[in-house]
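Need tokens for this chain, all 460 residues.
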Amino acid sequence: MIRKRSGTRGGGGPARGRLRAALGGVTTVLLTATALAALPQTTAHAADTLGAAAAEKGRYFGAAVAANHLGEAQYAATLDREFNSVTPENEMKWDAVEPNRGSFSFSRADQIVDHAQGKGMKVRGHTLVWHSQLPGWVSGLGATDLRSAMNNHITQVMTHYKGEIHSWDVVNEAFQDGGSGARRSSPFQDKLGDGFIEEAFRTARAADPNAKLCYNDYNTDGVNAKSNAVYTMVRDFKSRGVPIDCVGFQSHFNPNSPVPSDYRANLQRFADLGVDVQITELDIEGSGQAQATNYGNVVRACLAVTRCTGITVWGIPDKYSWRSSGTPLLFDDNYNKKPAYDAALSALGGTPGDPGGPGDPTAACTATYSTAEQWSGGYNGKVTITAGGSPITGWSVDVTLASPQQVVSVWNGSPTSNGDVMTVRSTWNGSLAAGASTSFGFTVNGGTTPPPQVGACTAS
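Here are the structure tokens for all 460 residues:
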């Protein structure tokens, strides 16, 4: 896949063409934006994966990902099947990308970004300025050098991923716990003062004007002294034109720190300031129905707030969680879906109980995405359909593109439209023997990023 690290999102005007069906075994469709909107509307159906269900609600459902687990087949299969956004767990933190001053290493983070783009997923950037996981050289700098190093770090990292990150955690965990609402002691706070957060956001906006810029913190999920302090800062920033687009709520819950009763109201009051809100590191310790109820409540709270744009769970199976003894995630150690998974999917409007999907060897069919060709204003996408352990006689796959991208042609499949989602069904290539593959393709104008979101394959 060709990747342009420092470029901006591609452009391209609407293609000129008409709806045309070719005679013979292969159906080819040429679509303008108007023609795509005019396609027959599909009957609404309940999605059967987290990412697909969230996309139908206009949101993303992501997971924190560790590069060293991507080689594990079940890990990658579950990621690819269920999620449409990823956040690197540690690979974009300061000690990982700039271990020595001015010397940057992006290989591990690139591995995650490449994987996400190849599967049509979005990427959250985490994190640029944080008191933790700093290499030792940062803390030893004087104020002038520290300011220069902070701004250079933000600029270099964001430029490397320009156009490829939908939201950045620009500053992370800058406020103290407890009832003071004070700033946390850190090299940045202690040497640069309160203004370092504003400076970081202004530097970030200059580095990538199209990325959403977020402040991210924990224990801010309900109305309390800490969330009030963050609220006051965001309100001040908005009043003075400081570039902040979103606030991240980590949402780490356990029996001693449960989902607060005012969780939804707290998200809404931040949204009312004119920023998006995102649930950025969700995990809920527990098991069974109690855990499931909490997950469902969190999802419903996000859906109830128009500007809650997405949810990220902090990991995939329990065994790789940073708090694994509390079994806080949606999949157990063997990647089985827990009751919490069904509750989250049901809250999103999806249908629980289907074990299938892309990458699942027990599924009736799988769908994997790749970019075939790419140019400045668009690309050709390819989706490969592979039958599972039994023959199939037909298949369908949902493809979702972000504005201003437009599908201008589809081949080896029959497209219909349901709002922003294009459903492609098999034509001559629906019958596949067990384990056999076919593909369909499409041309997109209007830019090269982000790549399309490809949903689960449904077989008949």
